[in-house]
Amino acid sequence: MYIYKAAVIGAGTMGAQIAQVISYSGLPVVLKDVSQESVDKGLATIRKIYQSRVDKGKMTAADMQQKLALVTGATNYDEFKDVDLVIEAVFEDVKVKQKVFQELEAVLPESAILATNTSALSISAIGSAVKRPEKLVGLHFFNPAHVMKLVEVIPGLATSSETIDDTVAFAESLRKIPVRVQECAGFLVNRLLLPYLNEAALALQDGAASMKEIDQALTSAGMPMGPFTLLDMIGIDVSQKVAHILHDAYGPRMTAAEILDELVKRKRLGQKVGKGFYMEGEDAELPALLAQIQKVRGTKPLKFTPERLILPLINEAVICLQEGVATPTDIDIAMVAGMGFPQDKGGPLHLADAIGIDVVTAELTRLSRELGPRFWPAPMLKRMVAANYLGVKTKKGFFTY
To answer: How far is residue 310's CA from residue 195's CA, in Å, rounded to a whole number?
Structure first.
């Protein structure tokens, strides 16, 4: 199905960015929110993105006006009668999203695709409230949507193959890189990213290293930014919520670090409020909080290495592969394009092949003895070692060489 007109529900930061991406591809798009004030803020965000392109000489002022003319602001559904695809980008709550889609079903053509930009909620659960669940699909953009190339396409239990194919084609028409992901809590990127970020928080709690030391170690290892800088950028509250969703789905190996809950209680939510893990000026609160957690936990810190964060990410990638969440190639593409995993390392599975599957398995086993069962190696790793699929050195691992 060709998409002639699209719509976005929710004119917040992500919704506005998604609408800008759609208009930039040349498609007309309706940006809807509940109040005119919210719609105006969303339209201002879109104008700001385009103005930045003009200021950098990437487009002319006339081109900007042509693109802006493709965006219509709305506080009702009058403009939705001929919309072919709508993307919902409202508050991360299943019931709120279900209500939005029920309203949309009443006004959209029967052929229209219902896409949700949820980052972690169940597509099937959202789809259970609509009459046409075969038309509902996850289409997860990454922040900032006008910069990040990756989008995850996630079918629910009832999503039709036609809907999936049409959504992938739509994402490609936006010049994005769509990766098909089987439905699971956290989908792919967040499911791999959160163990990495959570382990950074646990290492800090343990007193293994300071925030700056951990951030520096990971940027030196090739990451575009340190885990605490990234946590502050994402939002501590957002990361904490996803961490608890993953713990609920996958159990003890995803237990959220206490420091995340404590920072949220103290409204230290990251860059958006001016303080999170980092803050300007003297910070007496965080060291005292860490000392309190260490006293309760009674931990004995190990010497910190970047592998403590990277190996759980690799291990979760292997578990995703075991479960058929995505292909090895798509897992690596998603992590490079969606997380900023070092491009020269090729992604977590290419990195595992380069390190050696036997070495990865042995190191995870050692860490599981020293730090707990969350590091227990995925069964697939042990099977690969037994079969001499050790990666680059045997010319066969997750990939062939």
So the answer is: 9
Among residues 182, 186, 127, 175, the alpha carbon closest in space to that of 151 is found at 175
Give me the domain span that covers residue 81: 6-180
**Nearest-angstrom CA–CA distance, 367 and 389:** 22
Token pair for residue 93? 């709550």
Amino acid at 162: E
- Residue of 128, 110, 89 lying closest to 8 (CA atoms): 89
Say if residues 197 and 246 touch (Cβ distance below 8 Å): no
- Amino acid letter at 25? S
CB neighbours of 116 closer than 8 A, spacing ≥ 6?
87, 88, 97, 101, 123, 126, 136, 137, 138, 139
Q: Are residues 162 and 240 in the same domain?
A: no
CA distance 326 to 328: 7
pLDDT, tens digit, for every residue of 189-201? 999 999 999 999 9
Separation of first and last alpha carbons in the chain: 39
**Model confidence band, residue 294 (pLDDT cutoffs 50, 70, 90):** confident
Alpha-carbon torsion (336, 154, 250, 272), positive or negative:
positive
* Bridge partners for 151 per DSSP: 141, 178
Q: Token pair of 272, please?
A: 């958006």
Q: Which of 5, 27, 17 is nearest to 52 (CA)?
A: 17
Distance in angstroms (rounded) separating the CA atoms of residues 110 and 400:
45
Q: Which of 324, 321, 323 has its CA nearest to residue 349?
A: 321
- Give the type of residue at 97: K
Residue 37 shares a structural domain with residue 176: yes
| Residues 293 and 351 occupy one common structural domain | no
Q: How far apart are CA 13 and CA 84, in angstroms?
A: 23
| 244 catalytically annotated | no
Q: Please check the confidence at residue 300 and state whether its pLDDT lies above 80.
A: no
Last residue of a domain, one of 297, 315, 344: 297
Distance CA 18, CA 174 (A): 10
Which tokens is 130 given? Answer: 């609509």
Tokens of 304: 């910190």
pLDDT at 1 over 90: no
What single DSSP character describes residue 396? B
pLDDT(302) > 90: no
Q: 162 with 225: CB under 8 angstroms?
A: no
